């Protein structure tokens, strides 16, 4: 085995690491141009600028949870980059302990959930159920990263419930489908022992194939989660199924669209390396190194250099 299951926490580690820009469509969400700008900043690799813009959005719309969710999403990508390392030849944020910034991140998630539920008390809408689910997902993935399995499970199941409610109100809500897709995929990858624990904890089951279908729908039709659905589908096909040839065309459009996002470049390079395409992999790793030179986040830039150089040394 090239890797080992990280346990029940992995079920929810990436349950919607959250939000990305895509064109609005009937029956889905319709974020404002300001929100779309924040999303582009996040995925272009400038989370600090995204945080500043998200806070401005919060001031303009204090009762809307989206601005808070966007700040949490931008903060997550900073944390994710800082925690990334290579294990079993694969890049990911596998596990870390508590950090001082965690409390502020969890407070953002709680605020987003509170704002969404306040709106739901006034009107039961699919949009606010999605936002509540995303707030819970913010919590679930940090708990998963810290290997707090019970906390991750509780938050993950609660997020799933919100996405189910959203789909009951709007069956075309692709953002909610993508959230369920991640849940279904991860639950079906659990070991036999973990599945026994899931049964006794009352955690709903899932189907990997259904999860893949839902993630693909999120990639194609999601308004807020298309980029996230694409990133996690590619990463999970690599990590859990070793389906590198299938994962590569899912991942490479991210690197093409966001050529300064080192994490997308490193993932594309990682997949090419697994397929034996070492020259192409080296191109991506060198591009990641170049992106670090202009990265406004010094901690992520330093981590990128370490990871890219490590991958390059593996190919020699």
What is the structure about, briefly put?
It contains 15 helices and 2 strands.
Plain-language structure description:
With 316 residues, this protein is an all-alpha fold. The chain folds into two domains: 9-242, Alpha Horseshoe (Serine Threonine Protein Phosphatase 5, Tetratricopeptide repeat); 243-316, Serine Threonine Protein Phosphatase 5, Tetratricopeptide repeat (Alpha Horseshoe). The protein is 71% helix and 3% strand. It has a two-stranded antiparallel sheet. Helix 4 packs parallel to helix 6 (126-145) and helix 14 (278-293) runs antiparallel to helix 15 (298-314). It is globular, with a radius of gyration of 18 Å. Mean pLDDT is 87; it is low at 1-26 and 191-197.
Topology:
Layout: H1 9-13, H2 33-43, H3 47-60, H4 66-83, E1 84-87, E2 90-93, H5 102-122, H6 126-145, H7 149-169, H8 174-187, H9 192-201, H10 208-221, H11 226-241, H12 244-257, H13 262-274, H14 278-293, H15 298-314
SSE pattern, N- to C-terminal: HHHHEEHHHHHHHHHHH
Q: Which strand-content bin applies to the residues?
A: under 5%
Number of spatially distinct domains: 2
Which architecture of the largest domain would the CATH scheme give at its second level?
A: Alpha Horseshoe
Q: In which order are the strands of the major sheet placed?
A: 1-2
Q: How many helices?
A: 15
What ranges have pLDDT less than 50 throughout 5 or more consecutive residues? Answer: 1-26, 191-197
User: Cα distance, first to last residue?
Assistant: 23 Å
Number of separate strands: 2
Please name the defining characteristics of this protein.
Serine Threonine Protein Phosphatase 5, Tetratricopeptide repeat; mainly alpha; 2 strands; 2 domains; globular; 316 residues; two-stranded antiparallel ribbon; 15 helices
């Amino acid at each position: 085995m090239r890797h080992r299951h990280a346990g029940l926490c992995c079920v929810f580690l990436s349950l919607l690491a959250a939000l990305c820009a895509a064109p609005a469509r009937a029956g889905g969400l319709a974020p404002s141009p300001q929100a779309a700008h924040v999303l582009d900043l996040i995925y272009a690799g400038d989370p600090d600028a995204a945080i500043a813009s998200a806070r401005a959005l919060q001031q303009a719309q204090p009762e809307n949870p989206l601005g808070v969710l966007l700040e949490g999403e931008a903060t997550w990508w900073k944390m994710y980059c800082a925690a990334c390392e290579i294990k079993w030849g694969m890049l990911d944020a596998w596990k870390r302990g508590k950090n001082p910034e965690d409390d502020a991140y969890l407070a953002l998630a709680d605020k987003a959930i509170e704002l969404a539920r306040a709106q739901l008390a006034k009107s039961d809408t699919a949009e606010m159920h999605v936002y509540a689910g995303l707030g819970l997902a913010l919590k679930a993935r940090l708990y998963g990263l810290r290997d707090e399995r019970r906390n991750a499970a509780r938050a993950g199941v609660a997020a799933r419930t919100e996405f189910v409610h959203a789909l009951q109100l709007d069956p075309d809500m692709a953002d909610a489908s993508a959230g369920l897709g991640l849940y279904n995929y991860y639950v079906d990858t659990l070991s036999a022992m973990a599945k026994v624990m899931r049964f006794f904890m009352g955690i709903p089951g899932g189907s990997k194939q259904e999860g893949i279908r839902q993630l693909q729908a999120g990639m194609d039709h999601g308004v807020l989660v298309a980029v996230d659905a694409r990133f996690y589908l590619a990463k999970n096909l690599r990590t859990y199924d070793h389906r590198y040839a299938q994962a590569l065309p899912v991942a490479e459009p991210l690197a093409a669209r966001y050529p300064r996002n080192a994490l997308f470049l490193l993932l594309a390079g990682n997949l090419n390396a697994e397929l034996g395409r070492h020259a192409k992999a080296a191109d991506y790793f060198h591009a990641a190194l170049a992106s670090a030179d202009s990265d406004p986040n010094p901690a992520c830039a330093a981590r990128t250099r370490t990871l890219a150089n490590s991958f390059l040394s593996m190919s020699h």
